[in-house]
Design goal:
single chain, 170 residues, 2 domains, six-stranded mixed sheet, 5 helices, globular
Length: 170
């Protein structure tokens, strides 16, 4: 994700910015955006315009705050947070970040929240499936008269539910 992507998604409603004081991101600057519905903060490279971190929270606190961390710089951020004694999971007080895996997911949610629009609050993930697995899932979806995406949703939800029952996730 690049700064131009954020600017386009948020209609260039920049309200401020500052230098970033941590060392985990090279040549970093912080930029603030605001609408009547939300606050957004992004950290970006002043050299390449690559986004290191993008955060959004709505003003009415209807949603958990969403955050996207650039996977290429995530470990450096987590290491520095640990060195500084900062819990990187918390946005503020007892409010945890809802981390998004895909930049496109953050851009869609941020644009909708920023403009006070409804949005799909499910978290998108990327899957890399072997062709034979896709074929099996497609055939099962056909038997059930549902889409492949719906079939994949069912399989993933079943796996999540099994892990909850087993206590391996909460």
């Amino acid at each position: 994700m690049f700064l131009k992507d954020v600017n386009e998604a948020l209609d260039h409603k920049i309200v401020g910015g500052s230098e970033y004081q941590w060392n985990c991101y090279p040549e970093a600057r912080f930029m603030d955006y605001e609408s009547e519905y939300a606050h957004v903060g992004v950290l970006f490279s002043t050299d390449t315009q690559v986004i290191y971190c993008a955060e959004i929270n709505d003003k009415e606190n209807k949603y958990k705050p969403y955050r996207w961390l650039n996977p290429e710089y995530k470990d450096a951020f987590l290491d520095e947070a640990k060195q500084r004694g900062v819990d990187p999971n918390y946005a503020w007080d007892d409010t945890e970040w809802l981390d998004l895996e895909l930049a496109e997911d953050w851009l869609e949610k941020a644009s909708a929240i920023f403009n006070g629009q409804e949005f799909d609050d499910r978290i998108l993930i990327s899957l890399d499936l072997e062709n034979d697995v896709i074929l099996q899932l497609s055939m099962e979806a056909h038997k059930r008269d549902i889409t492949l995406n719906k079939m994949i949703d069912i399989v993933l939800q079943t796996a999540i539910d099994q892990h909850r029952v087993n206590g391996t996730i909460s």
